Amino acid sequence: MREVTRHVDSVMACLSKGLAAPIGSILAGSADFIDQARRKRKLLGGGMRQAGVIAAPGILALTEMAARLDEDHRNARYLAEGLAKLPCVDLNPADVHINLVWFRFNADIDAAELMAALKQAGFLANPPHQGAMRLVTHWQVGRADIDRLLEVMQRVLCD
């Protein structure tokens, strides 16, 4: 983290995305910067009472979930490699570095059919747009889930 942030004065990180907290972000910077941010937050009505209930999942996200982000990234690469093997999918697994997998396929595919098949198999996704789609791995997605997803994608996209 130090290497990534060495050229900036402040940094903000969301805890509710890949770290599985229901809400929250952290802000880091100089003491003066944080004092100014606190004042501006209060001026804009951003104060909270009894915030410990919200802070607890954030602390858990930082202490427990951050260590497993690499697993999400490995699972995304596994998903990308599986999708790239499908003859109807355009994807270079080397382009996948985090838990987001973007890929392209034949734009003539019936999006409603794809979404229904994914939902029936227990997967949620946003509908494809012009033959492009994004899938996301997270702490609740394992290799068995990915294998099942790849079977659905093969059946709907390629068969």
Automatic annotation (TrEMBL):
Q: What is its EC number?
A: 4.1.2.49
- Per the database record, which ranges form the Aromatic amino acid beta-eliminating lyase/threonine aldolase domain? 2-103
Q: Which residues form a coiled coil?
A: none
Q: Please indicate which superkingdom the organism of origin belongs to.
A: Bacteria
Q: Which cofactor does it need?
A: pyridoxal 5'-phosphate
Which InterPro entries does the UniProt entry name for this protein? ArAA_b-elim_lyase/Thr_aldolase (IPR001597), PyrdxlP-dep_Trfase (IPR015424), PyrdxlP-dep_Trfase_major (IPR015421), PyrdxlP-dep_Trfase_small (IPR015422)
Q: Name one GO biological process term.
A: glycine biosynthetic process
Give GO cellular component annotations, separated by semicolons.
cytosol
Q: Which keywords accompany this UniProt record?
A: Lyase, Pyridoxal phosphate
One GO molecular-function entry: L-allo-threonine aldolase activity
User: Which SUPFAM superfamilies does the UniProt entry name for this protein?
Assistant: PLP-dependent transferases
Q: What class of enzyme is it?
A: lyase
Family membership: Belongs to the threonine aldolase family.
How is the quaternary structure described?
Homotetramer.
This chain's protein is named L-allo-threonine aldolase
